[in-house]
Structure formats: structure tokens, C-alpha cells
Amino acid sequence: VDALLVAMDHLHTTTQGKKLKSKVLMFTDCGSPADCDDSQLSTIVRGLKTLDAEIKVIGPSICLDDDEEGDGGVAAASSAPMAKAKTRTQIEGEAVLKNMLQRVGGDSLSFHDALGALSHLSRRQIRQTSTFRGPLEIGSSVKINVWAFIRVKSERPVSFKKLSAVSRASANPNTMAVKMDRTYHLNDEDETEVMKEQVISGYWYGKDLVPFISVDQQQMKFTSPKCLKVLGFTKLSNVPHHQYIGDSTVVFVPAPGDEQAAVALSAFIHALEETEMGAIVKYAFRNKVEPKIGVLTAHIKLHYECLIFTQLPFAEDIRQYTFATLETKKHQPTEEQLDAVDELITKMDLTHGVRDEDGDLVEALKPNKMFNPVLQRMFQVSCMPFCLTVCSLITLSVCLSACLCTCLLSCLCF
Questions:
Q1: What is the spatial distance between Cα 40 and Cα 402, in angstroms, rounded to a whole number?
Q2: 284: closest CA among 140, 131, 128, 149?
Q3: Which of 290, 289, 294 is nearest to 250 (CA)?
Q4: Collapsing DSSP states into helix, strand and coil, what is residue 32?
Q5: Cβ within 8 Å of residue 238, ≥6 positions away
């Protein structure tokens, strides 16, 4: 009860005047007496409803359905293994929690079920932040205010920090952070130290090392002011998919609250869609950065419309290789071989590869449904370090194994 009061006071203090979704997670084994009468419980319930806070209790196995109650009004609603008998104090505490959860619409999970949920596939929630705010310039007179958001980007594993293993066992373990220092020395017998301010960059030109000072490096950089300019239009068939480069895909939407921009951008999107054209643009998301060239394509869905920006290569980015032709008499496939490959492709077609919950055939290996087994393995291990043994580290979970097998099947298909 005291913990709930402290949590409610903290939420009231920190969220006052703000429109936020509050959540309270309560961890307890109900081992302490629940000194709470009906008036105090009613006060807590009113406070939670006033804060509009969602509450979850993790610890006891509480059945909130009266039709499935066991002895004492508290049922074991989890798949946890047999545990020792509950004390009278725990039974009374669980009854108080059940009353409160029913009145505020809360939920409960046992420790066993909560630990099992941590091993389920999950993806990190990313805050929606704009990467560009400015005009889409079409010619010299048309400007449409747009915002840009990253739609697709490769997710990287969490980077680890270097810590001191010695300070971890000391009396002050908070000093584990390590500060790294770098020193520079001449390549001579004495290894003479050189101050950082006296170090400049150099590049090999043949057998000679040519020095470049910071001024030279700045002059070599080609930068652009912040912009999104349309250079021209072309058929989408002239932009092959294998020339898409870049580490992310960006979507452009009209600036919020700008009705004129919304109407103008919608007309521009539909025009591109109907003519099957793409807009070749110069894009610099902020001032003094290297400009990118890319293509804007129309993306129309039932509830929203947007432009998708995909970066295109320059001439230096394209690798020009020459390969021997396969169109020779020696390499001509027979009709039997062609039929075999055709049958293989038909049987491995992903368009109707799996069945959904209703039993209908749907597309398999859709990117938004397929998790990265490398990231999920890291998530699983980092969330459950206290319940994983060496054997369980070697053995993958069922859901993770299925995901990995799906990815391997994808590799075999292509």
C-alpha cells in the first residue's frame, strides 16, 4: 500500500498539467501485511482513476475472473510449476490486490509468466522525430512545406561500453566508467611524444607522405545548404531497383496544420502515381552537409499519402564489371531443366506461402513480420540474465528458432 501511494504521488507531481499515458508496475510477493481498510482502498482506487493510470501487478497468481476462483478467492492462473503453500498474509494481500485490480481494470502476472514474456520477440520502440523541415522546391515558383521522417533503417545491435572490472568489486562500484586517452609518438628510437595539437593528417602519394592541414581538408569538402529541390522527372522504369543505395529510406509528408501544403502535395503525389513517374531531387537534410541525389516516388494508402525518397548513386558509386556471356550452345538448358526450375520457383513462391489465423494463404517473409534473429537473441539474453544457464544459452527458444529457420529459408530461396 505504501509503495502504491508513493507511486501515485510521483505520477501526480511529474505529470501535472501534461497529457501523458501513465503506467504503474507493482512487484510484490504479498509477504508483508496489507494494512488497508475499505476507505484507504477506495482512496487509492479514486487516485488511480483520476490519474488515468494503468496498473499491473507482477508477483502473485491472481485470477480476476470470479467464475474461475479457487480456494480462498485467489486462483493460480498461470502455468508456473508447483510452489510452496502460501501464508495467510499472502492470501489476504492477494485478496486486497484482486479487489483493487477489479475496480480499476488492472491486470496481474505471475513471476513465471512475466519471465516467459521477456523471451518473446520484441522490437524497440523508436520515437517519431522529423529529420527535415522545409520546402519541396519544384522550379522557381512552387514550394510545398514538408516534413521528413525515416521510414526504413538498418537496426544495429546495442554498443557496449568499456568498464573497469577492478572498480566493480570496490566499495564505490559507480566509478566503473573508463576514460580513454590517446597519445602520439614519433617512429624513432626514443618514441618521442607529440602533442595532439601538433598532429596533422597525411596521405600517401606513391612513396611520399603528403601533409594536409585542417584548412586544406575544409577546402576539399563540398557542402550544400539545406534543400529539397526537384531536378527533373523520369519514368520509374528508368530507375532500376539495383541502383537504390543509402542506409535509410525517408518519407515526406505535408507540414502539420498546413492545409495548402497538404492539398498541393496530394496533387503532386497523385500526378506521379498516375503517370508512373519519379522526381529526381537534390537533398540535403541540413546546412553544410554533402548533398544526395535520389528519387521521390508516390506512396498512396487508404489512410495516408506520402513521398518516399530513395538515394541514387553517382558515377563513382557504380561498379562496372564485365562477365562472360551465358548465351552459348554449351550452356543452353534443356526443356526438362527449364521445367524443373519453373516447378521449383512455383513451389517456393512466397506470395501464398503461409496460412494466417483464418486459414487463408498469405504472403510469407514480409519484412514487417520477420524479426532479426541476431537482435532478438541479444534481447532474449540481456532481459533474462538471472534465469539463463549455460545450456539455455546454447539452446534457442522455440520462437527464435522459427524466426531463424524462416530467415535461412529466405536465403535459400534467393
A1: 49
A2: 131
A3: 294
A4: coil
A5: none
* Torsion angles phi and psi, residue 206, rounded to 5: 70, -125
d(CA 194, CA 185): 5
Backbone angles phi, psi at 397, to 5 degrees: -70, 165
40, three cell numbers: 484507504
Q: Is 70 helix (H, G, I), strand (E, B) or coil?
A: coil
H helices within 149-206, ranges in order?
165-168
Question: For residue 98, with 0-12 CB atoms within 10 Å meaning exposed, 13-18 middle and 19 or more buried, which class applies?
Answer: buried
Based on the number of CB atoms within 10 Å of its own CB, is 230 exposed (0-12), middle (13-18) or buried (19 or more)? Answer: middle
Residue 338 and residue 144: Cα distance in Å, rounded? 52
Q: How far apart are the first and last CA of the chain?
A: 58
What's the pTM value of the predicted model, to 2 decimals?
0.67
Counting every residue written for the chain, the total comes to 414
DSSP, collapsed to helix, strand or coil, labels residue 256 as coil
User: Residue 305 in contact with residue 266, Cβ under 8 Å?
Assistant: yes
Reduced to 3 states (helix: H, G, I; strand: E, B; else coil), residue 55 is strand
Amino acid at 304: Y
Q: What is the mean pLDDT of each run of 10 residues along the chain (414 residues)?
A: 81 77 82 77 83 81 56 43 71 83 83 67 75 95 96 84 71 71 88 88 87 83 93 96 93 95 96 96 95 96 94 93 84 90 91 85 85 80 55 48 50 42
C-alpha of 23 from chain center: 22
